[in-house]
Structures are given as structure tokens and as C-alpha cells.
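Bench notes, afternoon.
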Amino acid sequence: MEYIPTVGLEVHAQLNTKTKIFCGCKTSFGDPPNTHTCPVCLGLPGALPVLNNEVLKKAVLAGLAINATIHHKSKFDRKNYFYPDLPKAYQISQFDEPYCTKGKITIEKENGEKKIIGVTRIHMEEDAGKLMHSENPSIQESYVDLNRAGTPLIEIVSEPEIDSPEEAVLYLAELKSILEYIEVSDCNMEQGSLRVDANISVRPENTSKLGTRAEIKNLNSFKAVKAALEYEIERQIDLINSGGVVVQETRLWNALTNQTMPMRSKEEAHDYRYFPEPDLVPVILDDDEISAISGAMPELAGAKKERFIKEYLLPEYDAGVLTADKTYAIYFEEIVEKKVPAKKASNWIMAEMLAFAAEKDCGLNDLCSSKDLAALLLEVESGRISGKIAKMVFAEMIETKKGPLEIIKNKGLVQISDESSIVPVVEEVLAENQESVESFKNGKDKALGFLVGQVMKKTQGKANPPLVNKLLLERLK
């Protein structure tokens, strides 16, 4: 029997505010444990929370960016459960009246087909702290760092409309791009500022009723999401085919064994004993406030891609690559502003910059500034250096952090474009390679490429290639 998987994703994104959601403690990552705490985020008796207005603005902006409905009234609730890293033994969240519902995210599959995936809701809540376990297996101790407790989160809950692990990754990539473009979260999955819980079920292809779902908690990379969903789909299918029953439960992904493992039976909403947060008033937003936040919306990836195609006459593929990451798009436009042809800038970023950035695991500006790359490309455009030499200069720019003009001058790499300097080399190459000359005369055009290569070799790559071609052809014919 064939089975159809159904996936729904719950994405927790930390908002990049300077202070926590209900107090004035810093939200900086990587500081010494328990140095950013106060009576409010420690849950001490008598301490009262106050909503950070910047959290509200960024949360609303995220809702508007996915074309969701922003509600004029929402409220906070207490979600009661005990974890060692949750000081109050409850989490302040939003339950039945979230601030945002009914959004949508459009993904584009490899075949070019577009699909809209609904977003059920986005709500605001506070993050818990972090447990750190002893690295010594003989010492069963855990330590609690409460710096993260109270960090603002938005939880983005999709509709169960994702049909495969591949679609799940496309959805996450598009969502991450949106959050980065509107600058509400750094979406750093390694640091935990973007975390994914995946709900997955399977059903026979001839039925419409969804199967029993399992939830996979705290996936911290796209690779983990894809691998965990692939494993869980196979696990559930094998279980059903062997006569077993899928139970509703929470599972964890083990990246070492490439398996999901049971964590606990899945709670329902009533298990959390939600009730309205008595220390916070309802959140009231009027139309003017929502419009003001909407007015701060930057150009998103989709609109930027279309603009790059129309304004810079880029192929759709180029525009898609350059706008997939906001930093790529900014870098590209900074180069084009220096009068570098758009296609040349695009080619260099995609063929040279991205490969180096991936190899060194860094951003484009960490390799070289857009100003320096623009200066290098303008040297190629003016004919002062060849494309081949430009690649050599580029590699040294990355290695030494020197500017292109300094490297070109110090190494004497200016292209030779004077005929009187190239002609003797051309004639020397022709005299030394009579066999290739005869091959060309017999109709073998590849011989010309060989001869061009010999001239370039003798001039250490400095001869102007089009001029070399011209001078060779004049003599060969």
C-alpha cells in the first residue's frame, strides 16, 4: 500500500531585540551563565512583567510579511508545565487569542511549480533557559543557565499542508529569508535563535483522514529537518505495515544514529492548563499603529528578485541566487552602483565569491569589500587586466586583504594591449608550432586555441586575448 505523508511545522524564532520580552535584561548570546537575570525573568514572587513594545512591533511586522491578519486585540496566557530551565514553572505565551492568524508562504519547487502553504497562526511567547549537562559520563549533573529565560519568541505554526521533507525545507528556507529580510531575527540555527518542531503523520493514499501524528522536537538545521522527516515517514509506514499502531508522542532526533527516539507521550492543550495571564493587560492595536508598522516593511526577496530581472536584465536564475540571501543582494547592488555591468557582477559573485564563502564558511564581506571587488571588475572592464589575471588577483585579495590596484601594481600584472609588444611573441609561437599551423589550415579550429594559449603562456597571461586572436588569425590566413 502507498502512503501519503503530511507535515506541519512549528517554528520558534527569537526576535533580535536588545532586551527580553517582559523585563530589561539583555538578550546577548554567549555571555557567562546567569549574568542577565532579574526578579522578573527569574519568576520571583511579586515581580511583574511588562511587555517590551519593540517585541510587539517586530512580531507584527513578521505577520504582515506573510500576508497574515493582525488582530486588534490579543492576550497573553500562562502555559503551565514544569521544566528545570523554566523558573516560574509556567511560560507566558498566547493561547486562544493570538495576535496573528491566517498567513501564507509561497514555495517554488525544482520543477518551477509554486505552492502556497498556509500559516495557522503566529503568537508571542517567552523562551525558557538552557540546561547544560556534564561532559563527564561518570558525573550525572546538569547546570541551568537562565540568560535565555525571557528572550522574546514568535512561534509560527503552519497548516498541515506540507507533503514531503523537500517541501518542508523549501518552506523553512522561504520563512527564514522573510525573517532575515525584515530584520526581526538573525535566524542563527546554530545558536538556537531558529528552532523547528515537526509534526508528521502518514495515511493510505486512498483516504483523506490524517493519520496519528508524532512531533519531532528541537531540530536545529535544515539538514536535520529533512533527515528526521525521512526517517519518521519510513518508521511509521513500517510500523503500520507490520501490524503496529502509531501513537501520538513527542520524539527527539538523534543525529549520531540518524533515528528519532521517544521522548514523552504527546500533551494536548488541556494538559498545559492554560489560563489568562493575570499580570498582563490585553494587547490592543489600532489601525494607525498597524499601518505605521507596515510602513517600515522593506523590499522582500520576491519583489527584489523581480526588480533585479527588470532593472538589471538578469536571468531569473541569477536573480534568484542573488536575492536568496539579503546580504548577497546588498553586496551585488553595491558593486553595480560602482558602474560594474550587472551580469559581470552577478557572474563573479555566483562563480567566485559564493564558492570561496562556502569553503571558508563566512560572509561575502568577510572575503573582500564590495568596493574592492568593484575596483577589480572595473580593471577587467577597462581592459587593463584579463579575466584570468583577475582571478589570480582576487585570490590574493582574499589571502592578504590588500586592494586590487595595489596587487596589480606591485606584481606588474597590467594587461599588454600594445600590438608592437605582442606581434614578436605571436610570430615566435607560430614559428615554434608549425604542426598546429598546418592543423589550422586543414580546418581544425581547435589549433587556434592552442596557439592562443602558447602566446598567453609566454606573456605570463598578460597579453590581451582578443588582440592575440586577431593577430594570429591575420597571420594564419
